[in-house]
Design a protein that fits this description.
Blueprint: H1 3-12, E1 16-24, E2 31-36, E3 46-47, E4 50-52, H2 59-71, E5 80-89, E6 95-104, E7 117-123, H3 135-143, H4 145-153
Parallel strand pairs: 1-6
Antiparallel strand pairs: 1-4, 2-3, 2-7, 5-6
Amino acid sequence: MQLNTLYQEALTQGRAITVRLLYFDETCSSFLLLKRAEHQSLPHHWEPPGGRVEKNELPLDGLIREVYEETQLRVAKDAVRFFAHVDFTTVKGLAIREFFFVAKGTSKQIVVDDREHSSHVWVSFDQLPDYLAHPFIKTFLLKNQDKILDLLLD
């Protein structure tokens, strides 16, 4: 399905919209993870940059904004490719549709917004199991690594 169709469907279902970017280095050998701050939910867990899309904001626009707010990276829209979506419900009962995107970048200079994250790291898929991350994120990324790399290298 097309991104816009999935987005409209989620809105019709009353789901909140979140976005994540798998931002890879130039060689596609490692991608960026951010460590959640101690005062955040899931403290000290590692995650790809992203967050909640604002009302009347399209997923790609929300992604570009969130990535910039969290990392100071300016990612061009035309460098980003939609990869997948996942529907889930939080422990508090909030229905969410999370969109995953991939991009290959040239900059590894990250300025972490310390209100949300405490540090960053560049990891390969082989290194991912060594990091504390939500089990879904780990499983999802490891299960789809070949598809992700194929999309980046296409």
